[in-house]
Amino acid sequence: MRSLLQDVINALLSADADAVAGAEYGRPSAGRSAQRNGYRHRDLDTRVGTIDVAVPKLRSGTYFPDWLLERRKRAESALITVVADCYLAGVSTRRMAPRMHASRTSHPGPQLVKTLGINSLSKSQVSRMAADLDEHVEQFRHRPLDAAGPFTFVSADALTMKVREGGRVINAVVLLATGVNGDGHREVLGMRVATSETGAAWSSFFADLVARGLGGVRLVTSDAHAGLVEAIAAHLPGASGQRLGAPPA
Asked: Is the pTM of the predicted complex or chain greater than 0.70?
């Protein structure tokens, strides 16, 4: 999440600076009023960790992203919402545009640019940002787990959320697994959106985690959903189970 948030913030900074300069970076334009001149880097502390913010510099005039650095809490909340939404729903230019460009749609979802106070993003900028974010999301969703493992302790749960699909709001289930390795490091191992919480959905979810390298699990905490319990037993046969809210055996 930290890496995805950093990419989105830096892409937005670049697009915002292009609007101030009157033209997109690296493209000739008769309306250009300033040239870009590298970046100045600064650390930005967020709830998902410290990220490296690359603030564009201009050869003449100044650019200061007050929407980020002065209204940090509001910007951070909106950005994290969009990044998480893209992770869960998958990213495409069609899906990304309503989230990133309020003026082009009546989509009632997160209207990031309007929330942040950025008044101009071109269709090509949205397309590039969507493509870049899509690449990072896919890498995260399918990353190998063995390098950071073994994850001795795993927690699995399902969250019911409302999502917009085909112009209507429906209930969906987010299958979630987090793990803690031998160094005490905790991270999200996987997320998957399903239409309902079924044994088949949980089995497919855990099969993917194991295929990505999840191993060495000693304890899995979960609720007592029969399909979840069966999936844990089938794919992590050496792990003990503990029901949420129940004392350890």
From this structure: no
Burial grade of 195 (CB within 10 A; 0-12, 13-18, 19 or more):
exposed
> CB–CB of 55/39 below 8 Å?
yes
Instruction: Express each pLDDT in 56-100 by its tens digit.
Output: 888 887 777 776 665 555 566 666 666 665 555 554 444 444 454
Other Cβ atoms less than 10 A from the Cβ of 25: the count is 13
**pLDDT, tens only, 98-154:** 454 443 333 333 355 555 555 555 666 666 666 776 777 788 888 999 888 899 999
Distance CA 222, CA 100 (A): 36
Strand partners, 222: 243
Question: According to DSSP H, which parts of the chain are helical?
Answer: 2-21, 66-69, 72-89, 93-100, 112-116, 123-141, 199-211, 226-235
